[in-house]
Amino acid sequence: MNIRTFFAPPWHPRAPLVKRTLALCALAVAVLLPAQPAHAAYLADQTGKMVRVPHRPQRVVSLAPNITELVFALDAGSVLAGCSQHSDYPPEALRLPRLGSFFRPDLERIAALQPDLCLAVQDGTPDFVRERLEEMGIPVFTLAPQSLEGLREALLLLGVALDRQEEAQRLAAMMDERLRHVDALVAASAQGRSARPRVLVRVQARPFIAAGRDTYAAQLVERAGGRVPLQGSVQYLRLSTEDLLALKPDLILAPEGPAEPLDEAGGALAAPVRGVPEDLLFRPTLRSLDALDLIAALLHREALQ
Amino acid sequence: MTLRVVCSGCVALLAAMGAGLLWGSTSMDAARLLEALLGGDDPAARTVLLQVRLPRVIMAAGTGAVLALSGLCFQNILRNPLAEPYILGVSGGAAVGGILGLLLGWGMLGSHAAAFCGGLLVLFLVLKMASPHRGELGILLSGVMLNAFCGAVILFLMALAKPHEMGAIMFWFMGNLGTVSLTKALWHATALAPGIVFLVLSSHSMNLLLLGRDAALSLGLPAERVMRLLLVVASIMVSSLVAVVGPLGFVGLVVPQALRLAAGADNRTLAPGCVLFGAAFVILCDLLARGLPPEGELPVGVITALIGAPVFIGLQYKSREV
Lengths: 305, 322
Hints:
The complex is a heterodimer.
Chain A: H1 3-7, H2 17-32, E1 40-44, E2 50-54, E3 60-62, H3 65-73, E4 80-83, H4 107-113, E5 117-121, H5 127-135, E6 140-143, H6 148-161, H7 165-191, E7 199-204, E8 209-211, H8 216-223, E9 236-238, H9 241-247, E10 251-256, E11 273-277, H10 278-282, H11 288-299, H12 301-304
Parallel strand pairs in A: 3-4, 3-5, 5-6, 7-10, 10-11
Antiparallel strand pairs in A: 1-2, 7-8, 8-9
Helix pairs in contact in A: 6-7, 7-11
Chain B: H1 2-22, H2 30-37, H3 43-77, H4 90-103, H5 107-129, H6 135-160, H7 163-173, H8 182-201, H9 203-210, H10 213-218, H11 223-245, H12 251-263, H13 267-291, H14 300-321
Helix pairs in contact in B: 1-3, 1-13, 2-3, 3-8, 3-11, 3-12, 3-13, 4-5, 4-6, 4-7, 4-11, 5-6, 5-11, 8-11, 8-13, 9-13, 12-13, 12-14, 13-14
């Protein structure tokens, strides 16, 4: 091989075979590579990871009930192609195909839907599910709405990802307004009182299991002007009747729902038990604001009057 | 007999693999899947077949083959029909390592490595702790004790876990074959193949070990060395699998025992039989785990025990009548 044939372009009849083969391979790769969506942008999700999100995604899959609810709140329910098993609010969500549970998503059903965006939650969706979906070329956008601040941030991010920024801004403003209202009520009530009322959130009646200070429900109680009289970072604690009497709660909040009827009066010996709808108390969505109003109303009756 | 077992095993395995690829939680007809397999342009069918079902079938086959074969190996070495990696604490040690990795946030690779080390550490302890005077029984006893200890440690770790970690732990602990991609599944299969071949080729030595240590020695087999080598190879394979799919009980017990009832005690027949029927058994269990519930799926570990125990009791009962 002389120097001229070595530098000849691949289509030249005297170009070396290796060079021609390589050029052919490169051409094949370029032709066969799956076309990327025309408009897609890299967007940081709530964990800080950069995700390639298509412009106005059309087939979105939600892997948690609260995310499904947020998508509907953003008026983007029409782009949902499927959701996780317990997505039951709003009622329209019940018509969507179910894709396995929160902790056990069904990869096959998700893959068969060929979604262009998958919405996952931190501390919920198993890591391997996120990895597998990404390997299949499905972008996974992870949200972390485990606190009221996180919920607000998730709402705004979701608005950007689903191209519903205006709606998201409007909802965030509404959220701020309602939080301000609760804060004002709490401040007004605190003036005439020496200590914040002690509130336990009952997760289960028998045995009595209470939500620890690190849980979302406890955050709602604290924001509504109550105090969860538990120490440590354990999320769910089993308490005996003796413990309950020693903790001297002023109020026990119990989830009211099909799984946990309120007449299971666990803890009634220690304090009055009041029911709050189950979803409102434990599911971080915009309906948490209703829970906040409800708890605040229970705690600050006098201030309200 | 060997030929009959191998042939029927191959048929069972192929049928199970076919079923595993054709059925799943979504209904896709065979023609659509076949077209996708031959390079059709149906992306949904292609993804489901090649990226969801095929890796699962490969992992299930590998898991079944390794668990059944190492169960057989343990039973022969320890000359006890109850011996298997699960009862001897190897799976339990791997489970402790895996859960510890998950709780300490070491990521998937870290917890896999921890599970692998946990399994091998338990084997090391079992071999070290076993009283030399009690022979195989000593190994079995220290294994059972370590397994009980690992069980307690697992419960303790679970009590410390936060709810979202609990979900991940339960997911892995009850067995899940769908966690790896096709490339990784092929990697695992390739890595396990030499171990499987080695154990199958050692079936003659297992026959000799079954006669007892002294008899094997008198027949020219360095019994102690071979025993340790087989235990180590089987445990390495089991630990590396448990690390990925979680501790699956019963397969190592049921498949060799059932085959022994059907085909006699010659390990030269049983070893290839365990590979083929073990693989078919776990593929079918996984298929049921995916297909039985109308929504979501069951952990495969539930199905292996739910089917394995009655089948085994039935076989035992039948053999009593004979």
